[in-house]
Amino acid sequence: MNILDKIVADKRKEVDLKKSLITPSQLEQSVLMERTSTSLATALRNSTTGIIAEHKRRSPSKSVINQGLNVQDVAMGYETAGVCGMSVLTDGKYFGGSLDDLILARAAVNMPLLRKEFIIDEYQILEAKAYGADVILLIAAILDREEIKTFSEMAKSLGLDVLLEVHNEEELQKSIMPSLDMLGVNNRNLKTFEVSLETSKTLSEQIPDDFVKVSESGISSVEAIKDLQTYGYQGFLIGENFMKTDDPGESAKEFINELNR
Ligand SMILES: O=C(O)c1ccccc1NCC(=O)[C@H](O)[C@H](O)COP(=O)(O)O
């Protein structure tokens, strides 16, 4: 069983348990259901740098990255640095995140927040909205076309942006539909954990211009971003490169300053 299959098997059990504890109608009571979301896709279209900075304590590929930081400090640091949005990992077992991280980040900043999660059920989309997200991630490798359609249309009905993540051409071709805002290419091979920015470059031509192109994972230099921009990418999801430092906000700020030079 590869890591994605393991994560999804655990996620199904987790979602079933959560549904028995908090019903969808209880989630709908959240005051954040009334909040008007901020579009990450619009922020990326209007930006020259396009950084989406991630809060990531640990990961299956790297084990511990940084467990000692306060999520609100990280969020405020990223916002001050001028990132376009923040990705908040909410998976607990594999990434050390939680929905508490999302709601705490929401309380601290106004920028768009992406709920970075392995979404396999509509319940998690309701959770995303109820805990203050502006954007959800859908991963083509774990969903069929019908699920992508149902989930993305539900997200749009809640006012959320949708970032659809692909790893290869087959996933891309099965996923293209109007209810998506951004198409993300993940440079990390989830079977080998190998990272290659060539994945983003190879797939770039096949992504229709109506979608904001986002390159995800393994980005650690300004040169890499400048190169990816020539392939039409407007968004760059960066986790470890910032989170491995003592002050991710400061690292993001220096990175963005260098990108603007
Ligand atoms: O990061 C992992 O090891 C990982 C393993 C299995 C599934 C997903 C994984 N990462 C999620 C992400 O998409 C990244 O956290 C994100 O793109 C940032 O990547 P990086 O800049 O390389 O930390």
From TrEMBL:
Catalyzed chemical reaction(s): 1-(2-carboxyphenylamino)-1-deoxy-D-ribulose 5-phosphate + H(+) = (1S,2R)-1-C-(indol-3-yl)glycerol 3-phosphate + CO2 + H2O
GO MF terms, alphabetically ordered: indole-3-glycerol-phosphate synthase activity; phosphoribosylanthranilate isomerase activity
Indole-3-glycerol phosphate synthase domain mapped to chain residues: 4-254
The protein's annotated pathway: Amino-acid biosynthesis; L-tryptophan biosynthesis; L-tryptophan from chorismate: step 4/5
Assigned keywords, A-Z: Amino-acid biosynthesis, Aromatic amino acid biosynthesis, Decarboxylase, Lyase, Tryptophan biosynthesis
Gene3D superfamilies to which the protein is assigned, alphabetical: Aldolase class I (3.20.20.70)
EC number: 4.1.1.48
Protein's GO biological process: L-tryptophan biosynthetic process
Record Pfam families: IGPS
Keyword Transcription regulation: no
PANTHER family xref list: INDOLE-3-GLYCEROL-PHOSPHATE SYNTHASE, TRYPTOPHAN BIOSYNTHESIS PROTEIN
Family under the similarity heading: Belongs to the TrpC family.
Name of this protein: Indole-3-glycerol phosphate synthase
